[in-house]
Design a protein that fits this description.
By secondary structure, this protein is an alpha/beta fold. It has helices at about 10-25, 40-50, 80-85, 90-100, 145-160, and strands at about 30-35, 55-60, 105-110, 130-135. A 4-stranded parallel β-sheet has the order 1-2-3-4, with helices on one face. β1, α2 and β2 (about 55-60) form a beta-alpha-beta unit. The longest helix is centred in the first third of the chain and has 16 residues, at about 10-25. The radius of gyration is 15 Å and the shape is globular.
Length: about 160
Protein backbone atom coordinates (compact mmCIF):
# COMPACT_ATOMS: atom_id res chain seq x y z
CA UNK A 1 0.00 0.00 0.00
CA UNK A 2 1.60 3.31 -1.00
CA UNK A 3 2.01 5.66 1.98
CA UNK A 4 3.12 8.74 0.04
CA UNK A 5 5.80 9.74 2.56
CA UNK A 6 3.39 9.83 5.50
CA UNK A 7 1.33 12.73 4.16
CA UNK A 8 -2.06 11.11 4.86
CA UNK A 9 -3.17 10.70 8.49
CA UNK A 10 -2.96 7.12 9.79
CA UNK A 11 -6.76 6.90 10.00
CA UNK A 12 -7.07 7.81 6.30
CA UNK A 13 -4.54 5.11 5.42
CA UNK A 14 -6.48 2.65 7.61
CA UNK A 15 -9.63 3.43 5.62
CA UNK A 16 -7.71 2.70 2.42
CA UNK A 17 -6.47 -0.55 3.96
CA UNK A 18 -10.08 -1.50 4.74
CA UNK A 19 -10.95 -1.02 1.07
CA UNK A 20 -8.00 -3.11 -0.08
CA UNK A 21 -8.86 -5.92 2.35
CA UNK A 22 -12.50 -5.98 1.30
CA UNK A 23 -11.59 -5.95 -2.40
CA UNK A 24 -9.14 -8.83 -1.95
CA UNK A 25 -10.98 -11.00 0.59
CA UNK A 26 -14.61 -9.88 0.66
CA UNK A 27 -16.43 -8.45 3.63
CA UNK A 28 -16.27 -11.39 6.05
CA UNK A 29 -13.31 -13.67 5.27
CA UNK A 30 -11.13 -14.05 8.40
CA UNK A 31 -7.61 -12.78 7.84
CA UNK A 32 -4.14 -12.73 9.31
CA UNK A 33 -2.41 -9.38 8.91
CA UNK A 34 1.24 -8.40 9.07
CA UNK A 35 2.09 -4.73 9.38
CA UNK A 36 5.62 -3.41 8.93
CA UNK A 37 6.74 -0.02 10.21
CA UNK A 38 4.00 2.59 9.79
CA UNK A 39 1.89 -0.17 8.23
CA UNK A 40 1.64 -1.88 11.61
CA UNK A 41 0.04 1.20 13.17
CA UNK A 42 -2.25 1.52 10.14
CA UNK A 43 -3.32 -2.13 10.55
CA UNK A 44 -3.83 -1.65 14.29
CA UNK A 45 -5.98 1.43 13.63
CA UNK A 46 -8.12 -0.56 11.21
CA UNK A 47 -8.44 -3.40 13.72
CA UNK A 48 -9.27 -1.24 16.73
CA UNK A 49 -11.23 1.66 15.25
CA UNK A 50 -12.80 0.39 12.05
CA UNK A 51 -14.16 -3.02 12.97
CA UNK A 52 -11.22 -5.05 11.70
CA UNK A 53 -11.14 -6.96 14.99
CA UNK A 54 -14.28 -8.83 13.91
CA UNK A 55 -12.41 -10.62 11.12
CA UNK A 56 -8.76 -10.58 12.20
CA UNK A 57 -7.44 -13.90 13.45
CA UNK A 58 -3.80 -12.95 13.88
CA UNK A 59 -1.95 -9.61 13.89
CA UNK A 60 1.82 -9.49 13.57
CA UNK A 61 3.46 -6.12 14.07
CA UNK A 62 7.00 -5.83 12.70
CA UNK A 63 9.14 -2.80 13.54
CA UNK A 64 6.06 -0.65 14.04
CA UNK A 65 6.16 2.37 16.37
CA UNK A 66 3.16 1.16 18.38
CA UNK A 67 4.26 3.31 21.34
CA UNK A 68 5.52 6.19 19.19
CA UNK A 69 9.01 7.08 18.02
CA UNK A 70 11.42 9.90 18.69
CA UNK A 71 12.16 10.12 14.96
CA UNK A 72 8.63 11.49 14.38
CA UNK A 73 8.98 14.25 16.99
CA UNK A 74 10.35 17.04 14.75
CA UNK A 75 7.83 16.60 11.92
CA UNK A 76 4.83 18.96 11.73
CA UNK A 77 1.28 17.71 11.33
CA UNK A 78 1.09 19.60 8.05
CA UNK A 79 2.16 18.30 5.58
CA UNK A 80 3.19 15.02 7.29
CA UNK A 81 0.10 14.01 9.26
CA UNK A 82 0.85 10.27 9.08
CA UNK A 83 4.32 10.73 10.53
CA UNK A 84 3.00 13.16 13.15
CA UNK A 85 0.54 10.44 14.25
CA UNK A 86 3.60 8.38 15.26
CA UNK A 87 4.93 10.94 17.75
CA UNK A 88 5.31 9.88 21.36
CA UNK A 89 1.97 10.53 23.06
CA UNK A 90 0.13 11.46 19.85
CA UNK A 91 -3.66 11.69 20.04
CA UNK A 92 -3.98 8.59 17.84
CA UNK A 93 -1.64 6.45 19.96
CA UNK A 94 -3.39 7.61 23.15
CA UNK A 95 -6.75 6.56 21.62
CA UNK A 96 -5.40 3.16 20.56
CA UNK A 97 -3.82 2.50 23.96
CA UNK A 98 -6.89 3.67 25.90
CA UNK A 99 -9.02 0.70 24.78
CA UNK A 100 -7.23 -2.56 24.01
CA UNK A 101 -10.42 -4.65 24.10
CA UNK A 102 -10.61 -5.05 20.27
CA UNK A 103 -7.19 -6.76 20.39
CA UNK A 104 -7.99 -9.19 23.21
CA UNK A 105 -9.48 -11.96 21.05
CA UNK A 106 -6.77 -11.65 18.38
CA UNK A 107 -3.49 -13.55 18.37
CA UNK A 108 -1.18 -10.50 18.53
CA UNK A 109 2.60 -10.69 18.35
CA UNK A 110 5.21 -7.95 18.06
CA UNK A 111 8.69 -8.07 16.56
CA UNK A 112 11.32 -5.37 16.71
CA UNK A 113 14.99 -4.68 17.12
CA UNK A 114 16.71 -2.73 19.87
CA UNK A 115 18.97 -1.10 17.26
CA UNK A 116 16.14 0.36 15.18
CA UNK A 117 16.82 3.98 14.25
CA UNK A 118 13.33 4.47 12.76
CA UNK A 119 11.51 3.22 15.85
CA UNK A 120 13.48 4.92 18.58
CA UNK A 121 13.80 3.63 21.21
CA UNK A 122 13.49 0.14 19.76
CA UNK A 123 11.33 -1.18 22.58
CA UNK A 124 8.58 1.24 21.50
CA UNK A 125 8.09 -0.99 18.46
CA UNK A 126 5.82 -3.43 20.28
CA UNK A 127 2.11 -3.74 20.91
CA UNK A 128 0.89 -3.25 24.48
CA UNK A 129 -0.64 -6.74 24.29
CA UNK A 130 0.65 -10.18 23.28
CA UNK A 131 4.12 -11.71 23.06
CA UNK A 132 7.05 -9.53 22.05
CA UNK A 133 10.24 -10.63 20.39
CA UNK A 134 13.32 -8.49 19.86
CA UNK A 135 15.16 -9.78 16.81
CA UNK A 136 18.98 -9.85 16.54
CA UNK A 137 19.35 -7.49 13.57
CA UNK A 138 21.00 -4.07 13.33
CA UNK A 139 18.51 -1.94 11.41
CA UNK A 140 14.90 -1.29 10.52
CA UNK A 141 15.51 -2.47 6.94
CA UNK A 142 17.04 -5.76 8.12
CA UNK A 143 13.71 -6.65 9.74
CA UNK A 144 12.49 -7.42 6.21
CA UNK A 145 15.71 -8.82 4.77
CA UNK A 146 17.90 -10.62 7.29
CA UNK A 147 17.36 -14.35 7.94
CA UNK A 148 17.62 -13.73 11.70
CA UNK A 149 14.43 -11.67 11.39
CA UNK A 150 12.68 -13.49 8.57
CA UNK A 151 13.02 -17.04 9.90
CA UNK A 152 11.05 -16.47 13.15
CA UNK A 153 8.54 -14.31 11.31
CA UNK A 154 7.89 -16.95 8.63
CA UNK A 155 7.64 -19.60 11.35
CA UNK A 156 4.87 -17.61 13.05
CA UNK A 157 3.10 -16.85 9.77
CA UNK A 158 3.01 -20.54 8.84
CA UNK A 159 1.70 -21.85 12.13
CA UNK A 160 -1.98 -22.82 12.05
Amino acid sequence: MPLRFGIAPIQTSAQRLAGHIEAAFGAREPIDILGFSMGGVIARTWIQQMGGHARTRRFLSLGSPQQGTLTAQPWPRWPLAGIADLKLGSALLRQLNADLSPLRDIDCCSYGTACDLMVLPGWHGVLPIGPRRMLPVWSHQQLLRHPAALDPLVEDLLRP
